[in-house]
Each structure stands twice: as C-alpha cells, then as structure tokens.
Input
Amino acid sequence: MAVAGAEPRAAWASRAEESRGRLFAEPESDGRSAFRRDADRIIHSSAFRRLAYKTQVFSYHEGDHYRTRLTHTLEVVQVARSLARALGLDEDLAEALALAHDLGHPPFAHAGERVLDACMRAYGGFDHNAQSLRVVTRLESRYPAFDGLNLSWETHEGIVKHNGPVAGPLPHAMAVHAERQDLWLWSWPGAEAQVAAIADDIAYDVHDLDDGLRAGLFTVDEIADLPLVGDIIAEIAVRWPDLDASRFIHEIGRRMITALIEDVVGETRRRLAAAAPGSSDEVRRHEGAVVAFSAPFAEAERAIKAFLFPRMYRHPRVMREMEVAGEVVRALFTRYMADPLALPPEWRAGIEGRAEDGRARRIADFLAGQTDRYALAEYARLFDRAPELR
Output
C-alpha cells in the first residue's frame, strides 16, 4: 500500500482555528497556526535541547552511534508526520506531540525514572508523562507573562493521555494541572495524539532492534524467528545475498518502518470508515482507539517487545550500567533533601521555607531536568568520586 500522498484534511482531524485555546490569551500569529507555534516553542525549549544527553537505552559513554532520547524523539516525529499526512490529520499537532512526549524523562532512561519514583513515593510519586506536562506548563521559564510554554489545549491533552484515557489516582503533576484546565482525562485523545503514541512504538521497536544488533547484544539469526522481522530478513537475503552486515541491519529497519506505517494507515482507515467520526471530539468520545495496528501486526509488535525485554533492556551489560545510574539518582536525591544548600542557587531559592513534600517536588524537578552527564558531574562534585558506568 502506498501512503506517500497526503489526504485532504479529514473530518476527524484537529483544527487549529477551532482550538480550545491557551491558558493565557495571546494574539494569533499571522504566519503560523496555533499547533505550528506549539511545535516551534517545544523545539526552542531548554528541556528539548537536553534530550541530546539523556539515555535512550545506551548511555553516551557507549559511543556516538546509538540513539539518545533526542534522536529517538526525532525519529518519532518523522513517523508521526508520515502517518498524519496519510490520514489527513494536522501534521503540526502530531509533530508537537511527538516532540513533547519525552520532555519529562529523567536521566538514565527508565532506570532513572524507577528510582526517582521510588524516592518520591511518599510525596506523590514521579511519572514522566505527567512531568512532561509540568515542563511545558510550569518549569520552562522563557516568557515574561507566564510560566511554561503556554501551549494549546490540544497539545496539553495529547501530552497527558496519548496512551489513552487516564483513570484512577492521578500522578501529581496531572492532579495539580487538573485544577487549572479540564483536559477530558476520561476520553480518548484526538487522532493526532494517537498517531504520536503509535509512532513512538514504531520508532523504538525498530531502532532498539537496530541498536541491539549493532551493539552485539543479539544477532540477525536470533531475530529471524520473529514475526514480520523474519520475513523481511528472508527477503533481503534473497535479493542481496552478499550484503555487508551494516547495510543488512539498516535495510531491516527501513523495511520494518515502511511495513508498520502502511499497516497502521490501513487499519486506521478501516476503523475510521466504520466509526465515521465527524469531528475530533467524536474521535475522543469513540469507545476505543481509532489509530492502531491490525491484529497480525499487533501480535508481531508484541513479539518484538517480548524479545527486546530480556535480550536488550535486561541484558547484563545494560543492567549493570543502569544499576549504577540508578544509584547516582538515588544518592543525589538523598543529598539534596538532606542538604538543600547543595543545590545550585536558582534551584535553592525559596526551598528552605517549603514543606517537605514541596521541597521533594522541587528536587525531583531539578533531577528530572538533568542530563546523564550533568548528573554524573553532580555526583562527582558532591561525593568526590566518579561512578563507573562501564
């Protein structure tokens, strides 16, 4: 199935001219839509720049050839825009949501998040999706009239619930924000947010296989039994029997992305034809996701994740590094809580008069914004020794 051509804007697409607006009123731009401005503001934010030195799977010590949180984000953007274009959605909103989806990640990937959540358990916990919302609504300090980036309602909504409705006890940042803005947490998000979520799955399935192969954690032969992947490997081997390993690995990823995108476009068009939503709000009120893999591809995608979990994310080499990284985060949190004077002046300001939970949240905000290398430098500064990640 060819998906290169853009569909005309669909009835179910979000419309910038019909946006529910921003928390703080601003004049509209003559040359950019509300969603384009959102994407641009995220690109120019300091939180976005710091993604360059945050771990995806391998820390920057492993070399420059593996994905970082920033390069992962850019790959998600590319897939999200391709899907949005094929489905007649608003590409700028899809891009904004892809750009913002990992802004709240702390250093050292999910190991850092697990440890920070444990440190914050008595104070409301820590969740990277909720932290992304906190970044764009409170922590970015760029504009004279407001904190945050003052993004549109639709971008805030998609950041919070791109994975679906949010139920149960809300993470701290979401609960705080809910007092200021109703983001329809009970509903599915708009189609652009659903596109950003599935683009995230496509990007990290493909590039984690790529990084794992290049790092020698597993071989092409070991993934040849995976559904979808095995067929692609067989096709490449037949067409280019003498292809060198590096190009072979790249061709696997390239073909996987194409196949996954085409499947999502086909399945989503089928679901949209059946649901026939007449607006983005009808997508939100639909009983389930409209953007999805077909059943066979969903099974294949689950198999890829099931393979990656023990063979990559729990590989002894990765686990050793992340164990040390987690201890760095835990040690920094403990030290800052015990000695707020150890914080930089701009983060220390006003912390002395806060209650314990407020002090902990301030420290969590500081830690979550750190890059891997900044956290390691802070550890060396405060403990007079450098942790060995290798």
About this structure: The chain has a mean pLDDT of 92. The chain is about 60% helix and 0% strand. Residues 233 and 239 are 10 Å apart (CA to CA). Residues 245-275 form the longest helix (31 residues).
